[in-house]
# Entry
Amino acid sequence: MRIQNDWQPVGQPIAAALGSFDGLHRGHCAVVEKVLDRPGEMPAVVTFDQNPSAVLCGRSVPLLMTNGEKARQLQKMGVGALYLLPFSHICHLPPEAFYDRLAGTLQVKTLSCGFNFRFGEKGAGDTDLLQRLCDRDGIRLFVSEAVRDQGEPVSSTRIRRMIENGDMKSAARLLGRPFSFCFPVEHGRMLGRTLGIPTINQAMPPNFILPPFGVYASVVTVEGKRYTGVTNIGVKPTVGSDHVLSETWILEYTGDLYGQNVEVELYDFLRPETRFASLTEMQAAIRRNAQQAQSCTAPYR
# Structure
């Protein structure tokens, strides 16, 4: 997949999905699917390096996925070009100017967006304006209605609330896939190895969504193979950590993963993070969690 940080055309007509795609949930995927498999048009996504809603409101909104993970998921869907535009460079463009950059530079033949898509300075442009501009220029526009779950629209806000409450099953239902992250494996104190439970450590970025601190049944993908994992999110109160970590024991795996980006999917909350009286007590609890995790993740491996 070609990734652009500017308006550089790809050399052929494109069908472009528009939006911030914060989390790339089921509603977002419905928008992207409209631009796939259009004869003679490269499927593309036009999005931003920051969440426009968060920037315009001046507040911090935890990320549901990194831009790198967004690119990886879009490539898996079949997107051929990703325009990851610097929001600070275009947020002051009037709606018509943003549209002219989009339609006039990128050889757009088809556009797709959600019902609540806004564009241009302060979000002044809406789907009605976009439809008029597309009609003027002979561009086909698809506007997707909300995808609903249990009577309510699927939204990034709902998914954040579910993750922050530890409700991984509901979050997965709205996302259309398990909540996951993919961060580099860093060196730790190697205490787990001495206990017979070797773990990988992954630092959680400060702007990334955090589920409740505790232990989760997980599935870890290493070189295309899926393994059951026991993942602790938190600060390791028994042995101590000065920052939030994901620490995962990958069952039935042996190998060196330092420096590699490893994907961890969270499936079920098993227990809160606990300060144990001894390492032996902690070891016994983790082994019990491993048995629970194997049962929870059996259908997903």
